[in-house]
Write a structure and sequence with these properties.
seven-stranded mixed β-sheet, 15 helices, single chain, alpha/beta, 23% strand, 22 strands, 491 residues
């Protein structure tokens, strides 16, 4: 033991203060488990609260207001060009984050969860050391631990001549983009996934000329193309350029600009911009924790291996959230945190959820849950689907946002709802109905016969279900008619 090192003993040690970590700590304390939470950041909330979900949504709201004002002339309302104060916008965003962080701190304090700030290093499967900057280190002995260390942006070091260029202020990851240091005149976004597109939406609304480069043949790779199409159409009018099937071969960092060397159909060989945002995904934080001193197993992608009860190969250690695998979503981590705490309390609990919703908070929003057409095709699962266009939605028309659709994917034999996808305003708020339907084993009739308020966007779910049933009925009538005609001919 290091001289001057303090020693603490707890029943449960939660490593990581993000949504999964603090939820696990609160649930464990509620169940009577003496709990301590350790995080390397002074304010709880993790990446989601401080460098991800929340700040991005705050900025996306600002972008929505700007875009709404710009397009209001379509229904007879005209505004002067908006005056954007970046300092005030940044301060408002930070105020939102601070208030939410204070709320989490208050919850932890009320639940009597001890909160330590520092970097952890596992000593073995029963203890770890917390290195606290400027203070005495703490050795914590625990009966169980929950890993909730999250993830970080994936870098692309091969694009740069040296590490100094990689660390240039002209090169941003999602954390840097959300800090909103300034609004570059020309911005290159590498990656057409949800992070890249959300940040493209923000910076374009604030005045940047945004170019997106995606190496795959579609934006939001993996998402059904019919859901992506309306978004791609909208973005083509908001962004300067979108290059698909295109790679960035290298980045030359100059004094005030960056020259990107591209390779792809229709793209220029070089593109000079003022800043570059690298948004090609995230990688789990499973390194430099001393996990090699435990029996925890890590796969080839860096994820900690877990079972349905969030247990790892080490009987004393569980893992939740981004560090435990895909999809890397805060709400998945929250549910897993509850499961882990309940398992340690002796309750019958496991992560057996059928549907994990996903939302891209662009304009329009894209949301889905359950199985997708893409996934069904890859796995050879027989499905059918029905769509309802938002151009036929009274509420969408009154919002002046009629571009979009709702799609229901179902089992053609049992008519059980297997998936729901939608693109349009507030799609992220609507997708929960699909999650509930899938979790409850609902069939098309359940959605079709449930009364939805009129006029609302939620009616599009009802209408999609009705469209599916109507088509099934027509097919049945056609089959019946064909059989009847055949019988008469035979007679």
């Amino acid at each position: 033991m290091v001289v001057g090192e303090m020693v603490e003993q707890v029943d449960l040690l939660v490593v990581g203060g993000g949504p999964g970590g603090y939820t696990a700590a609160l649930r464990a304390a509620e169940l009577g488990i003496k709990t301590m939470l350790v995080d390397d950041q002074p304010k709880p909330g993790g990446v989601c609260l401080h460098m991800g979900c929340i700040p991005s949504k705050a900025l996306l709201h600002a972008a929505e207001v700007l875009n709404t004002a710009k397009e209001a002339h379509r229904f007879g309302i005209k505004f002067d060009s908006p005056q954007i104060d970046i300092d005030e916008l940044r301060a408002w965003k930070e105020d939102v984050l601070n208030k939410l962080a204070q709320g989490v701190s208050g919850l932890l304090k009320s639940a009597k969860v001890d909160h330590l700030v520092g970097k952890v290093q596992f000593i073995d499967s029963k203890s770890l050391r917390v290195d606290r900057e400027g203070e005495s280190n703490v050795r914590v002995k625990f009966k169980h631990a929950i890993l909730a260390t999250g993830s970080r942006p994936t870098p692309l070091p091969f694009l740069f001549k040296n590490e100094a260029d990689m660390q240039s202020p002209l090169i941003m990851d999602s954390t840097g983009a959300l800090a909103l240091a300034d609004v570059p005149k020309r911005l290159l976004v590498i990656g057409g996934g949800y992070i890249g597109l959300e940040m493209s939406t923000v910076y374009a609304a604030l005045g940047s000329e945004v170019t997106v480069v995606e190496m795959m043949d579609n934006l939001l790779p993996g998402v059904d193309k019919d859901l992506v199409r309306p978004l791609a159409t909208k973005l083509s009018g908001q962004l300067k350029n979108i290059y698909l099937n295109t790679k960035v071969k290298s980045l030359d960092v100059k004094t005030n600009t960056v020259v990107a060397h591209l390779e792809g159909e229709g793209s220029p060989e070089t593109l000079e911009v003022d800043k570059v945002l690298i948004a090609v995904g995230r990688k789990p934080n499973s390194e430099e924790l001393g996990l090699e001193e435990t029996e925890v197993e890590i796969d080839e992608f860096g994820f900690v291996k877990t079972d349905a009860m969030q247990r790892t190969a080490d009987k004393r250690i569980l893992a939740i959230g981004d560090v435990s695998g895909q999809p890397m979503l805060a709400h998945r981590a929250i549910r897993q945190g509850i499961v882990a705490a309940e398992v340690l309390a002796g309750k019958s609990s496991q992560f057996d959820n059928r549907a994990i919703p996903a939302v891209v908070f662009t304009e329009p929003e894209v949301a889905w849950c359950g199985i997708t057409d893409t996934e069904a095709k890859e796995k050879g699962i027989k499905t059918a689907s029905a769509k309802f266009p938002w151009s036929a939605s009274g509420r969408a028309m009154t919002l002046a946002e009629p571009v979009g659709q709702t799609k229901i994917i179902y089992d053609p034999e049992t008519l059980r709802v297997l998936g729901l996808g939608m693109v349009g305003p507030r799609a992220g708020d609507l997708v929960a109905e699909g999650v509930l339907a899938i979790e409850m084993g609902a069939v098309l009739e359940d959605l079709a016969e449930s009364i939805h308020a009129h006029p609302t966007l939620s009616e599009t779910i009802n209408e999609a279900a009705l469209a599916a049933l109507s088509r099934i009925e027509r097919q049945a009538q056609k089959t019946s008619s064909s059989a009847s005609t055949g019988a008469k001919a035979h007679g």
